[in-house]
Write a structure and sequence with these properties.
The structure holds two protein chains of two kinds. Chain A is α/β, with parallel strands linked by helices. Helices cover 42% and strands 19% of the residues of chain A. Classes of the chains: A alpha/beta, B alpha/beta.
């Protein structure tokens, strides 16, 4: 199951419970899965056509009139395409609009750079008042959407296209601003968000075979960050490797680095896209090409551990 | 501190009527002469505010003043100045946010906040921001300033009103230069698509934008045909003829099944000889002798207090 499927399902449940929830889409409702809501609640579903700027403005107006508004399209179109509309019409008045963007990152693969959302975390986190979430699996996506619906204020929720395995524990309870520990370890900490949490866990298993024991944090709450968990990881493990399928600048890595520098400086390394756009290709090929997979995490973790143990070397 | 109005305060009438007589919650429209005098008074406030702030946009405020005066004091908007968040109110969205001084002058006159506050325009700590901020100023429905966004916002409010079966109307004032923005036309398409006949747009057609005449910077014509082609009822009016504006709003309210746009033909800087059609005063405040001359031309009343 993909996170967008649980998103679509959750929206319908929310819609049944709350008549003030309305949903907007920009001609991608079958891909974002908002069409399920549209089918059950046609009066509360507005397809805005291929006009994201207008959609964000309509979302803001509905929210100003008391609605809880979900606005969905692909991540590239939900952020960079209409940044000024989101900034002035939603962020500045802090309106109750939940932008749930699907097809984030580079795993729309073959569509190429025009469709790869690699700046969206940077853009969304730059907006004062926004809560920014990148759920790691379908279950967490569903919970994050439900929490957003009952939490006033603007949200950006980043979902990916492909199906993802469950990484959350069975009794998982999503909380904004909390980064749960998925694996305990003392040698270093892997902090991953979104679909790469799964890769981080794979790398952790391989590293354990090499005698390296990693703590793994699910950094699904990008804004606000769980600063207590970051500080504890820095103090207790002495090195931090961040993992994301987003540009290094302005993404999870940058945000964690700023917190670490302020709270408890330790050596860091970053798995991320390095100041470049990806090309067309299969999702797996692209992740491999840009060194975003478990084997690369494993390799960089070993390198980081050496820096931690021999800081002058 | 609050300057006495020549006319009874609108809220005194509103409170005299039962609260649920919602359609009558608007103040009684002023008589023609009084409405014209009030519009001139709002213009004087625009001059004083921008002069005191030593910045701001008098030209586009003065072209829009008669439209705004008609909305608030000419019997168009149903609103309760002492209850700015009243859910049944008609919504007025100033999409051309740089005309904020004209809106603030009208809101103060209506009783949304004290007249004395007008003197704080653009100052640190003021509720009267350089461009409208819906989180700070009572009566301001939308935060604006970056152009092209108000019509979309108004559509959202109009859709919410329909969902909630509230009979309020939504009015959005656009600049003509603002119609260069692509989002305006995205929204124009959507408002017609959603058949929002309780939404009315107004275009302040003063024919000027910052760099000059609209026909030279980016030709908008045929503007009425464009709106018609997008599915709107188009009403044209002299934007400085208050009776024509009132008639235009009445006509807009009677349109069924589609939104209406009033193209209000106006003069930038209207009412002040050296500001009229002078692009310099798009974003420059009057200074020194200019202030005195402007106020004199606008019929300054020596008893009028400022702030």
């Amino acid at each position: 199951m993909s996170p967008r499927e649980t998103y679509g399902k959750t929206l319908v449940e929310l819609g049944r419970a709350d008549p003030h929830i309305v949903v907007l889409d920009a001609d991608l409702s079958k891909s974002t899965m908002t069409h399920h809501f549209g089918r059950e609640f046609p009066q509360r579903f507005f397809n805005c056509g291929i006009a994201e700027q207008n959609m964000m403005g309509i979302a803001a107006g509905l929210a100003a009139a008391g609605k809880t508004v979900f606005a969905s399209t692909f991540s590239v179109f939900a952020t960079s395409r209409c940044f000024d509309q989101v900034r002035q019409s939603i962020a500045q008045p802090r309106l109750n609009v939940k932008i749930v963007a699907t097809h984030s990152g580079i795993t729309v693969g073959e569509d190429g750079a025009s469709h790869h959302a690699v700046e969206d975390i940077a853009l969304a986190c730059a907006l004062p008042g926004f809560t920014v979430l990148a759920p790691a699996d379908p279950e967490e996506a569903a919970q994050a959407v439900a929490v957003a619906a009952r939490t006033p204020g603007p949200f950006y929720i980043r979902l990916v296209r492909p199906p993802l395995p469950r990484v959350s524990p069975p009794d998982y309870h999503f909380v904004i601003g909390r980064s749960p520990v998925l694996r305990e370890g003392r040698d270093l900490t892997l902090m991953a968000c979104g679909m790469l949490v799964g890769e981080a866990l794979k790398a952790t298993q391989a590293l354990a075979g090499e005698g390296v024991h990693c703590r793994v944090l699910n950094m699904s709450s990008l804004k606000p960050l769980d600063e207590a968990a970051i500080a504890a990881a820095a103090q207790e493990t002495g090195a931090i490797l961040t993992v994301e399928e987003h540009l290094e600048h302005g993404g999870l890595g940058s945000r964690v680095a700023a917190a670490v520098a302020r709270l408890h400086p330790v050596p860091m390394a970053f798995i991320a896209l390095k100041d470049t756009y990806a090309k067309s290709g299969k999702a797996g090929e692209l992740l491999e090409h840009h060194k975003l997979t478990a084997s690369h995490i494993q390799h960089l973790a070993q390198h980081l551990l050496k820096r931690k143990l021999a800081p002058t070397g | 501190m609050t300057e006495p109005s020549r006319e009874p305060k609108p809220q005194s009438r509103a409170s005299a009527s039962p609260p649920e007589a919602s359609l009558s919650s608007s103040p009684q429209p002023l008589a023609a002469g009084a409405l014209a005098a009030l519009a001139q008074r709002l213009r004087r406030q625009v001059i004083r505010m921008t002069a005191q702030a030593a910045s701001g946009h008098p030209g586009g405020s003065l072209s829009a003043t008669d439209i705004i005066a008609t909305l608030y004091f000419g019997g168009v908007l149903r609103h309760r100045p002492k209850e700015p968040k009243w859910e049944g109110r008609d919504r007025f969205i100033l999409s051309k946010g740089h005309a904020a001084p004209a809106l603030y002058a009208a809101l103060a006159e209506a009783g949304y906040f004290p007249q004395a506050e007008l003197a704080t325009l653009r100052q640190l700590g003021s509720r009267l921001q350089g461009h409208p901020d819906m989180t700070l100023t009572p009566g301001v429905e939308m935060s604006a300033g970056s152009l092209g966004q108000g019509l979309s916002f108004g559509i959202g409010m109009a859709l919410a009103g329909r969902l909630d079966a509230r009979p309020y109307r939504v009015y959005i004032l656009l600049g003509d230069g603002e119609c260069d923005e692509g989002q305006v036309w995205e929204a124009a398409m959507a408002a017609a698509h959603f058949r929002l006949d309780h939404l009315t747009a107004m275009v302040d057609r003063n024919q000027q934008q910052i760099d000059g005449w609209t026909k030279d910077v980016m030709n908008l014509e045929p503007l009425a045909d464009k709106w018609r082609a997008f599915g709107w009822e188009v009403i044209e009016a002299d934007g400085h003829n208050l009776a024509q504006l009132q008639a235009a709003f009445s006509q807009a309210q009677s349109v069924v099944g589609k939104p209406a746009v009033i193209i209000a033909h106006t003069i930038k800087g209207k009412g002040v000889s050296f500001m009229e059609n002078n692009p310099k005063f798009h974003g420059t405040a009057p200074r020194g002798d200019e202030v005195a001359q402007a106020l004199a031309e606008l019929g300054a009343d020596p008893s009028e207090r400022w702030p």
